């Protein structure tokens, strides 16, 4: 099996997830947890379509600067189309493990739903440390994919689908070791919090419903379940069983400071 590749098709499905009320609420909760100040210079690693970066810019104000980096040209094009460098927000191609910025360039670094997809998390954290000023903040958010509770009429099939889906990330359980990794790479963890996405009823615009398409494509392409079985899983959640719908997932927030 292979880690999810963010080609244009996968990026389109991911964009549909980013625009759900669930993720928007999480985005605001994440920003509130950072306690940004006017005038800060912020780097958003894995900036995607730029939603978080633009919300950060609202917090740092006209004297602040936000730079977003991402490896997806599809996402960068969306971010750039909705932003103007004259407004103090910039987007460019960037690899989390090889940032093209001088030492101590930023006051704060944000990184949401990125580290779990990297082969070398420690290398990325060391890069974050390098480009962050002493005393600067780092705000991370990643998912433990073993925390999913998703009701189904066929628990065994659900278990099989979610087991295959775990392989979409390099480390689907990263939050369990992230605080230790931060400590090892020069950060002091100053706050931790759980962000729960909770969908107790079926709605089309929810995070979990939008994720169904992304998961279905991945599990079919990576084997272990055939097209017919995957469609049966989809129909179970969106059709015959949606009146008994229930979903929850935990994401973990870590706020650190460079020592």
Number of helices: 9
Estimate the strand proportion.
15-25%
Gyration radius, in Å: 19 Å
Average of pLDDT = 93
Q: Helical percent range?
A: 40-55%
Total domain units: 1
Account of the protein in words:
The structure is a single chain. This protein is an alpha/beta fold and 259 residues long. It has helices spanning 8-18, 21-34, 51-60, 73-81, 121-131, 155-165, 175-184, 207-221, 227-240; strands spanning 41-45, 65-70, 89-93, 106-112, 132-143, 149-150, 187-199, 247-258. The protein has a single domain (8-258), classed as 3-Layer(aba) Sandwich (Rossmann fold), CATH 3.40.50.150. Strands 1, 2, 3, 4, 5, 6, 7 and 8 form an 8-stranded mixed β-sheet that branches. Helix 8 (207-221) packs antiparallel against helix 9 (227-240). It starts with 7 loop residues before the first helix and ends with a strand.
List the helices and strands and how they pair.
Elements lengths: L7 H11 L2 H14 L6 E5 L5 H10 L4 E6 L2 H9 L7 E5 L12 E7 L8 H11 E12 L5 E2 L4 H11 L9 H10 L2 E13 L7 H15 L5 H14 L6 E12 L1
Parallel strand pairs: 1-2, 1-4, 2-3, 4-5
Antiparallel strand pairs: 5-8, 6-8, 7-8
Give the structure's gist in a few sentences:
The protein is 41% helix and 24% strand.
């Amino acid at each position: 099996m292979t880690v999810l590749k963010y080609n244009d098709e996968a990026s389109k499905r991911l964009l549909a997830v980013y625009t759900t009320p669930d993720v928007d609420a999480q985005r605001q909760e994440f920003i509130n947890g950072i306690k940004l100040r006017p005038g800060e210079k912020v780097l958003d690693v894995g900036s995607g379509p730029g939603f978080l970066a633009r919300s950060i810019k609202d917090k740092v104000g006209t004297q602040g600067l936000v730079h977003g980096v991402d490896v997806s040209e599809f996402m960068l094009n969306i971010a750039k189309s909705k932003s103007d460098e004259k407004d103090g927000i910039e987007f460019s191609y960037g690899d989390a493990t090889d940032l093209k910025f001088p030492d101590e360039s930023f006051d704060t670094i944000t990184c949401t739903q990125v580290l779990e997809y990297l082969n070398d998390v420690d290398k990325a954290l060391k890069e974050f440390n390098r480009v962050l000023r002493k005393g600067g903040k780092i705000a991370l958010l990643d998912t433990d994919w073993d925390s999913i509770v998703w009701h189904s009429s066929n628990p065994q099939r659900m278990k099989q689908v979610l087991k295959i889906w775990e392989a979409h990330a390099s480390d689907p359980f990263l939050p369990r070791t992230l605080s230790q990794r931060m400590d090892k790479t020069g950060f002091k963890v100053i706050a931790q919090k759980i962000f729960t996405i909770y969908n107790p009823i079926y709605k089309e615009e929810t995070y979990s419903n939008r994720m169904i398409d992304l998961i279905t494509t991945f599990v079919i392409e990576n084997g272990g379940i055939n097209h017919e079985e995957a469609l049966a899983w989809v129909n179970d959640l969106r059709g015959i069983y949606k009146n008994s719908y229930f979903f929850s997932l935990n994401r973990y927030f870590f706020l650190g400071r460079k020592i």
